[in-house]
Write a structure and sequence with these properties.
homodimer
């Protein structure tokens, strides 16, 4: 089978071009393209160009405001709240991130809330931007409800991710990007497609009973990470990113499907400057040493290497930047349909150099 | 068998009296007593008066500074760092909490670090104090290493808890207090005592292999919550509470056992005033409604009630305040030995009213 490989620049260009064809200005499209391509580069294919067809559908349905006016309100010396005006989440999230960076550089600490946004891509994109500036960064967002409360039997909570980046000095930055469910919904879909059963810790039926049948799980709810702990974390994210910012929360979110409504999601950003605690070079030395210590620690039998969070994704990113991003045949077909719809020739984005 | 029941006030008095007998001033002892008693009231017996004998041992060994001078350094308008001067953690943690409360009330947001402390009791004690003041509060601390990194085979990380409290308006505050390991070390000890096997997700052997034998697990390492996710969270806590504040971290901590060294633990506190985001009455209304929504959601078969995090502990606290705290025969014996050592008559603290 022919392998479909696209360069970083071409994937960014393709996404920007497709979004432009459905009415999104190029400068905004480039931000969306950078976020999606970053996910593909880092091997998080579920949040890369695979998301584009859904964005396009929502745009065509008029569910998303293509020219949002992002109003920023200062809530305190180191706090702000942004209204995303029902635009795509990426633009507003980047603005929130930039505000958090500016405040943390000036005051050492910042908290920025963002309400009334749509899906913003991988959560770790934004803390990684903060870590690029030497800051410790955090982003959380609520997402469409797929998970039951601990003891519950209906979808009330999203997989509500927590993303953190810690600058690693000369070493690779530590990047955490975790959902608060045991596994992603997509894992059940894969099991169903492959005719496999699932561990009974992944999901419950619509009646709230544990199941090993992916079909029953897909019709039911995901289970929170480790039971009550993941439930607590998911609630925390929903309250801080959703309720507190004035966004929607729980299963009250509109626009979950392919309808004409925006999602009214919320997100929250924290940035902290470690150089307030100690000299920058001391922090760098300590964190480099910390990373080396973990990596040198005793490995379990059969384990080649101990990785820091995000280390493998960062290695993939370096590799994909050089060797291009591999697009699966199924995804290629989907993107081809999208390109055809808007009158773009997909082939010209896929370089023969990589084949 | 005779039941041993002690009132809140008498447990506080007993702890203060015992600590005074080994040289701790009463005002500091009262803080320690309040933290430990709070744990017992809330049904977290592992962190209650059960910890006292270890504190007393460390004090007698001269491992703990009984008259710490707590130096506070302002790091920015909404940030501070406290040096715990190797005192018991409770006093310094309360000071950090009070500083976080004051800064958050003035500026909306606060971050306070604390280094060079010893064990501070239940982590949620401090965010609960913040929630009492209408703030959303967080406390994290690193703890003695018991857990292997994901893929590792030696103890490098503590169970590093994350505690959060969110004021619930007229409803019970939401209180999260979770370790970042799958289970507490104590659960393996209980299994060993009862001759039971353990699930293979709890611990690994000293060679890094999963085990169902509690003895092998106790000689090995705990496993992080959900694998890589708990590993990421434990690292995050260790870096923010330990490395960043200038405390110890990983397995470099001294004073882990019953030796003459302090623990050099670190902790970090965040406080946020929700009334910066919206009017207090609006936040209260939303959070009360949120809690009601979760509680009214569909229950799994066999589940009587869905609880918010901390709800059951708060109900236990109310009950124990009225009916007293039940002390197990084993723990009573331990406390009796402690009281005998310092020349206190334990019986007089246990009221006959409760029997």
């Amino acid at each position: 089978m022919e392998k479909h490989i696209i360069s970083q620049e071409n994937e960014q260009g393709l996404i920007t071009d497709i979004l432009e064809k459905v009415g999104l200005g190029r400068s905004q499209g480039q931000i969306v393209a950078d976020v999606l391509t970053k996910a593909d580069l880092r091997g998080i294919g579920s949040h890369g160009i695979a998301r584009l067809s859904w964005y396009v559908k929502k745009i065509k349905l008029g569910a998303v405001n293509l020219n949002p006016s992002l109003e920023l309100k200062r809530l305190g010396p180191t706090m702000a709240l942004i209204d995303g005006d029902n635009g795509l989440g990426h633009l507003a999230a980047l603005k929130a991130t930039e505000e958090a960076i500016a405040l943390a550089k000036e005051y050492g600490l910042a908290c920025v809330g963002l309400r009334n946004m749509n899906h913003f891509g991988i959560a770790s994109y934004y803390p990684m931007k903060m870590a690029d500036q030497g800051l410790i960064g955090l982003a959380i967002t609520n997402t469409l409800p797929l998970m039951a409360p601990f003891g519950g039997a209906e979808r009330k909570l999203g997989s509500n991710p927590i993303a953190v980046a810690i600058p690693g000095g000369k070493k690779t930055d530590i990047v955490i990007d975790m959902s608060t469910s045991n596994v992603a919904y997509g894992k059940l879909e894969v099991a169903l497609r492959n005719g496999q059963s699932i561990p009974d810790t992944w999901a419950i039926t619509a009646e709230g009973q544990r199941t090993t049948d992916p079909k029953e799980g897909l019709a039911g709810s995901l289970l929170p990470l480790g039971g009550p702990k993941g439930y607590g974390l998911a609630l925390l994210v929903d309250i801080m990113a959703g309720l507190l910012t004035g966004a929607s929360y729980l299963d009250r979110m509109p626009g979950l499907g392919q309808d004409e409504k925006g999602q009214e999601l919320g997100s929250l950003y924290l940035a902290l400057d470690p150089s307030r605690f100690m000299a920058r070079e001391d922090f760098n030395r300590l964190i480099e040493d910390y990373i080396a210590d973990i990596k040198a620690s005793k490995k379990a039998q059969g384990v080649d290497q101990i990785f820091l969070p995000g280390e493998r994704s960062s290695a993939k990113e370096e590799k994909s930047k050089k060797e291009g991003i591999v697009i699966s045949p199924g995804l290629y077909k989907e993107v081809k349909e999208l390109a055809d719809q808007v009158g773009l020739d997909l082939e010209k984005y896929f370089s023969t150099n990589f084949k």
